[in-house]
Amino acid sequence: MSTFLVCSTLIGAYLGYLLVSLFRNYHAAKILGVPIVLSPFDLFHPLWYLISPAFKPLVSLLPYRFRRWSSLYTGDWPFYDKRRIHREAGDVFALVNPWNYHIIVGDPVAADAIYHRRKDFIKGKNYAIFNFFGRSVFSVDGEDWSRQRKITAPCFNERVSGMVWDESVRQARAVLKHWTSDEQGKVGSMVDDTRMITLHVLSAVGFGIRQDFGHGMADVKPGHTLAYRDALLGLLTHFVYPLVFPLWFLEIPGLPESSMKTAGTSLRELNSYMDEMLNDERTAIENGEAAPAKPNLMSALIRSSAEERKPKDRLTDEEIKGNLFIFNIAGHDTTANTFAYAISLLALHQDCQSWLREELELHVHHSESNYEEVFPHLKRCQAIMWETLRLYPPVLAAPRLSYGPQSIPLSNGQSISVPPDTRFHLNHYGIHISPSVWSSENAPAHEFHPQRWIKPSETDPKEETLLHPKSGTFLAWSGGPRHCLGQKFSQVEFVAVISTLLAKYVVELAVSRERLEATLAETGGGSPALTIGRKEDIVLRLRNVG
Ligand code: HEM
């Protein structure tokens, strides 16, 4: 038999096998009673992310009815799709391919049930790729998660919130000084500067390392090739490489200067910084030294773990490093992007800024602003954060896996029953812009309207209430027992920074409205991320109104 014949028979047999598999998965999904969208590929497989750009031009030539699946083409699909697929296929549907099927959830009741039943719907192996320093509360399930959450959660206490506030105000003041140094009040580095704020707040509150605002290389400690801040920044910027390649590969001698090499060097440096800090803290505990008056997250984590009576309940060194790294990964771009989007949205919506100003004039008086006194009053400022996160959630969707057979309630009063190991994707953004959930007589769901979060007081303008959304309808920080551990941290940071920047200044457009809107309509890749893949910073103007 000729090679050609052998190859064609093998390819034909494989295509036949795929067709049969597609048919089998179709029937398995059909039994669930949800609408079905067929796809020729597994769109959530990591391999797809690598090969999908090559197919894109070809796929776009197909008539829409043959490529409905392509609405979910890239990791940021919820942002571009804007619920179209849910309008066509339903709030909950199955995306069936020859290898498996995924249930896409755009229904708040179903999402809420899935997030609240953490033992029934687990993260599974998907998150193990984040373990390159060690397992963390973010990446594990079951009893292991309970053990890690019990130790990590108390670290995010009110004392830490106070530290976040103080450091955020300090950083924001330095940034403001830098911004106002331009005679025309032009700000050309808003995204980079706010990103630096989040990095410095994390480094001060996370590890007790305070950095002054500025873009130059920070101090390099003896025995290191990078400063701690720059190692952290290098890894956060390029952390996709260690997710895919082992450290030895990133450090192959002779590798040219590249993002990959930076990721490798940063990873090694950060690991050795963390080892040193861990040793110092351990020695302090062994010498009976009391906890510092203001313990950073690292010392709080080590001490909280050491307090566990049974050694098996404590965190290992790898787990401590894994958690500290996750705090940085989870808390950096998420918060930085929220700043960049919020400031841009405020520049576009001057009415919202005036509304915010009324609150700042009432509550931000002193040069020494204090967390306990000021934060609880700045409800409009918080509303601006929540509304920004509703329209630009850094985590657009999240996966879960059913553990055992499960039944899930739906908004229409019905329910679906699924077998074990069913893959789910919870479309946060799709739920955030659902008209049935978010449209009101004052504003449609897709419009930036922070006032929707505030219940005015009929008697006292100082006594407004921040409304809490119905469970399952707002998932920017996720939901249920595994909701974001750093939610309060990011809220305090946001309010401290925005209230400091805008107490005496108004931020205005320095480019056309259309140009800024076009920038906000594009994502940088996997999620709305003004910091990734951006060709230029967002240029704004500051006007003094103090
Ligand atoms: C605006 C800022 C933030 C947003 C929008 C955000 C969003 C989220 C989301 C959606 C999840 C769930 C992810 C999933 O289930 O796949 C999560 C989990 C988590 N976040 Fe955040 N986050 C923010 C800031 C922070 C900060 C500042 C920290 C720490 C300093 C942090 C630490 C964590 C941790 C440890 C988890 C895992 C919790 C668990 O699984 O028990 N986050 N975050």
TrEMBL record:
Q: Name one GO molecular function term.
A: heme binding
Xref: InterPro entries: Cyt_P450, Cyt_P450_CS, Cyt_P450_E_grp-I, Cyt_P450_sf, Cytochrome_P450_monoxygenase
Coiled coil segments of this chain: none
Residues involved in heme binding: 484
Q: What does this protein need as cofactor? A: heme
Q: Belongs to which family?
A: Belongs to the cytochrome P450 family.
The protein depicted here goes by the name Cytochrome P450
Q: Which organism is it from?
A: Mytilinidion resinicola
> Upper taxonomic classification of the species?
Eukaryota, Fungi, Dikarya, Ascomycota, Pezizomycotina
